[in-house]
Amino acid sequence: xxxxxxxxxxxxxxxxxxxxxxxxxxxxxxxxxxxxxxxxxxxxxxxxxxxxxxxxxxxxxxxxxxxxxxxxxxxxxxxxxxxxxxxxxxxxxxxxxxxxxxxxxxxxxxxxxxxxxxxxxxxxxxxxxxxxxxxxxxxxxxxxxxxxxxxxxxxxxxxxxxxxxxxxxxxxxxxxxx
Length: 178
Prior knowledge:
Thrombin, subunit H; mainly beta; 6-stranded antiparallel beta barrel; 1 helix
């Protein structure tokens, strides 16, 4: 998008409207003042099932060649997954059933509309391939409306091996679908 004025931060949720259509988007990047990207933003739909624009008004798609400046903070690459999780938060008596969207040896992202308190400890139970995987962790970051990033803690060699096996299985499944 071009001709944007204002101060926006990547990760911020914005609402856009076109004619009678309205949708929410996450800001992926902003063009830096004084560069050829000044006044431009990149957005990602929060709800991909909603189409904001008429197909006839869209320009031909072009590759987005923008790359954000900054160092990747993750120590391990994440692999997409869609696993059900029982999340036991510190101080809670019952689990919350949520959906894990990606996982790495060091952590995962769990989709949940209502966020738990910051910096809380938690325990997760994941059933996969007929095996029960119990993980301990802490909340590494929170994304309101989307979910939480969890950093795994207290990893035994057995649990670490189970996670590695799960990641290998998920990677193989992804490659076999291509």
